[in-house]
Amino acid sequence: MKNLVVINVIPSGIGGIQTYGKTLEGKLNEEGVIVERIETYKVDRTKNLTSEILKKITRFFVNFVELSKVIKEYQKKGHKIILHAHIGKGVSFWENSAYCLWVKILGIPFIFHIHSSLLHVEFRQSSEIIKGIRRYILSEASKIIALSGYWKRQLLQIDGLQSEKVVVVYNFIDIERFKGYNKLECRKKLGLPLDKKIIVSIGRLEPEKGLEYLIEAVSMIVKNRNDILCVIIGDGTLKEHLERYTQSLGLKSYIKFVGLRPPEEIPIWLTAADILVLPSLRESFGIVQIEAMACGRPVIASKNGASEKIIISDEYGLLSEPANPEDLMERILEGLEKNGMSIK
């Protein structure tokens, strides 16, 4: 393993892919594998779009130079090299494909690690020419990693994709990062009330995350009790809309938006919480769920294609129907009141 070099291509910024990619790097280092990271630029759609696109294009070409430099350096030393590309939706597929095909020309194999729940949908919606290009790119990968058996079956809807090429590797976390925290101390550190039930939701503020349904569920809950505080962690294109929606429902005292938080803070927020809520309409995995479990906190999640494989017992959490605020409300209340549900 000491002769192996993994070039890990992950997006910049904060999120599930980044968390997993960096955790993977640490584990590979422990096994004696050399890891070189190449970061793709993640466009921030809340900022000036023209400026953000220029930054992405610049990083794109810089990454080609960096890739060539890293490969040349380790090839001279006689190392075995493999590129591990973490693929999201949309542009991510094409950008990473360009890197992968380039290193293939240089004699380096590559792995596609699919973190998007939409790859098979994007394929189906493509023209026949684009489908052919996508098939070719996928056929050139040494392996394609799916995050669950369910998502492997979805990927195999892509014509010509061979089952033996697609392997299932579940996301994992470094449990040690989540140990040693105390709920009371965490709440004091974050300035959260000590006498309320704290609901935390972590993720991008985008339509597929279903946060409108969480806001509506909270609006129903507070009609009968006022000991609830919902903390929403994350950023995205729906931030202003969700804040306005919260205000329009008179929920400013019950829902708090705290923006993006650095990875080192996530164990503190999760430990401070009573439950994590993930109301997504679709997920490829949802790594925050196992992070919450590592903190001993149950998860309330919608049936989104991933959570069903994670919440396999009422000891871990509860599942709600997607896009159904009434059912989500009931599951949240059940999760908050159920004795002995916390897994810590």
UniProtKB/TrEMBL annotation:
Recorded GO MF terms: glycosyltransferase activity
Transmembrane portions of the chain: none
InterPro entries: Glyco_trans_1 (IPR001296), Glyco_trans_4-like_N (IPR028098)
Domain Glycosyltransferase subfamily 4-like N-terminal: 53-177
Keyword flag Ligase: no
PANTHER family, alphabetized: BLL3361 PROTEIN, GLYCOSYLTRANSFERASE
Name this protein carries in UniProt: Glycosyl transferase, group 1
Organism: Pyrococcus yayanosii (strain CH1 / JCM 16557)
